[in-house]
Amino acid sequence: MSRRGNIARWCVRLLMLALAFFFAWGGPWPGWMEHLFPALSPFAAFASAVAHRGWYRAVYWLLPPLALLTLAVFRGRFFCRWVCPAGTLYAVASTFSLKKQVLRWRISPFLFWFTLAGALLGAPLFLFTDPLAAFNRSVVTLSGLRATVAMIPGVIVPLFMLLSLVQPMLWCSRFCPLGYTFDLVKLTPRPVSRRFHNDRRQIVAGLAAGLPLALLASSIPIHPGRKRTWPILPPGALNADDYAERCSRCYACVNACPSRVLNVRFSTNRSWAQFCQPELTPDSGVCDEYCNRCSLVCHTGAIQPVSEDEKRYRKIGTAVINKDACLAWSDEQYCMVCDEYCPYNAIHTDTGPTGFPRPVVLPDQCRGCGMCQHNCPAIRAGKAIIVEGLAEQREIPANDLYDI
């Protein structure tokens, strides 16, 4: 490439990098722009479509990835060289590289076929290796806006920037499953049968290892001695297992949440497939009654879109009262804060034998929004009312018990 062409390419790359940073950071623009770059990945789109065992959740989610895939047929890794924000960061770091060849084997075919094998079982566990999701995750993690110590996948981009100081473009040349996707579809003089013959070891190894790994990750707990509990998932999420397996950990939903109730936790009473997934933490915020932003930014279908009205009838959890910690139940002090804050009238007053008011949760009316837990004043033995997650969310039909 000529000097002028190289300058033009770097200008475009830096512009795309700046846009990716601004969109991932969040701002006054429409919510769909916050996940614009993660949604471009053909690797994530293809694996998610296979995992859904049918057509993708919406045609418009497939159009940008298909356009990039079509471009790759004729131009190969054009996206990697001109647009990819993670690739730009690696290229910047590689300009100062020692140019050592530490790793000579390509890991990217194994990551691709691992993910595809898992997707065949509905569990594309390696979606988090997608570079666009990794970039978005790193911005959300390192920005400090929603960072927690549990966001371990957020260090992938900074780590490989450091490694690029030793071996240039290490991620792009050896690990990137998106780049391998572009290589697969690129037109070359070699016949397709010969290309797959050369890659047969990676294909066989990926399928052979990916299928059992997908099954084991969903069933093996992080801490075998802990009882497994269900997390509180964003409204519109698939069942707990499917959500964990199809989430790419791009954290666009975390960034989109205005109340900061959506965070990333490290819980030992989860399976390995649920590692570092976004969950609701009512102690840090509440799931607002009319907010559905998280359901509009998920590009893998782990969270299905719900309207504001559908969100109001969506049950994502159930509040449970710890009577030993409750001021009303244990000390007979007047405290009905949970009832005062509940937007769904899901707290019933039980007078008991002494006539003193005590809160009782009506499970069929509770949506699990976390308003009660977030505002509970009990501190002696922790919160007196805790929201527990569900294995699968459901709709609560309107009835005459309350006015909503």
Mean pLDDT: 83
How many β-strands, per DSSP? 6
The end-to-end distance, rounded to whole angstroms, is 64 Å
* Structural class by SSE content: mainly alpha
Q: What fraction strand?
A: 5-15%
Trace the largest sheet across and list its strands: 1-2
Order of helices and strands: HHHHHHHHHHHHHHEEHHEHHEEHE
Strand and helix layout:
Blueprint: H1 3-25, H2 42-51, H3 59-75, H4 78-82, H5 85-94, H6 108-120, H7 131-142, H8 156-164, H9 170-175, H10 177-185, H11 192-198, H12 200-219, H13 240-246, H14 252-256, E1 262-264, E2 278-280, H15 293-296, H16 308-312, E3 314-321, H17 327-331, H18 337-341, E4 347-350, E5 358-361, H19 371-375, E6 385-395
Antiparallel strand pairs: 1-2, 3-6, 4-5
Helix pairs in contact: 1-5, 1-7, 2-6, 3-10, 5-8, 6-10, 6-12
Structure description:
- This protein is mainly alpha-helical and 404 residues long.
- Helices cover 44% and strands 8% of the residues.
- It contains 19 helices and six strands.
- It has helices at residues 3-25, 42-51, 59-75, 78-82, 85-94, 108-120, 131-142, 156-164, 170-175, 177-185, 192-198, 200-219, 240-246, 252-256, 293-296, 308-312, 327-331, 337-341, 371-375; strands at 262-264, 278-280, 314-321, 347-350, 358-361, 385-395.
- The strands form three sheets. The protein has a two-stranded antiparallel ribbon with strand order 1-2.
- Strand 4 and strand 5 (358-361) form a beta hairpin.
- Helix 1 crosses helix 5 (85-94), helix 1 crosses helix 7 (131-142) and helix 5 runs parallel beside helix 8 (156-164).
- The termini are far apart.
- Mean pLDDT is 83; it is low at 400-404.
